[in-house]
């Protein structure tokens, strides 16, 4: 027999994912209002972006994957689902509220509260000096030239020879001064830079997938 009480339970069960999504948007938007230049977006990226990003992640062995700027974790679930059981998935996030959100909702990720500019030192606290993939969605085109160069240098230092580095930017940002400079920096830092656009996001996302750091 379906009682009023049972109906209420199944209805609230159906709304749980919606409530979770709203909670995620509220946390992200709050962080964006408090620190617009660090977050660099008003909403998290779409599942279509996450599905593409996850393709660079190894599916075998015991890989180590680092996410720079996981935010509320909109890319993290797709990455996690593709990783093999003995993988490590490390998130480095600068926003304290976002770190709390990630620790609560993505407990399988090793979330560090810190700056991508301290990548090497942060990984050293986990006794790591090499990683198999770095996925980044920090607002690259808003950073200063020196900061971008410093983070890129640390990425190439920690990337294993077979590793992949992915950077996401909004498609229109490629025409900004910072965006154009970032493209040049990538071209002089990596032997291979492949681009891909995900249109199912607002605004569309430009992915840079980079391999084989060049010697300085
Ligand atoms: C555009 S949001 C992307 C969030 C999420 N990955 C997504 O795709 O929806 C940028 C994220 O990078 C974080 N961030 C910005 N600068 C950072 C830095 N230097 N170190 C670590 N995280 C940073 C922000 O707090 C924010 O969560």
From TrEMBL:
Residues 65-163 form the Methyltransferase domain. The keyword GTP-binding does not apply. The keyword Cytoplasm does not apply. It comes from Halopolyspora algeriensis. Signal peptide: none annotated. InterPro entries: Methyltransf_25, SAM-dependent_MTases_sf. Pfam families: Methyltransf_25. This is Phospholipid N-methyltransferase. GO terms for biological process: methylation. One of its GO terms (molecular function) is methyltransferase activity. Keywords: Methyltransferase, Transferase.
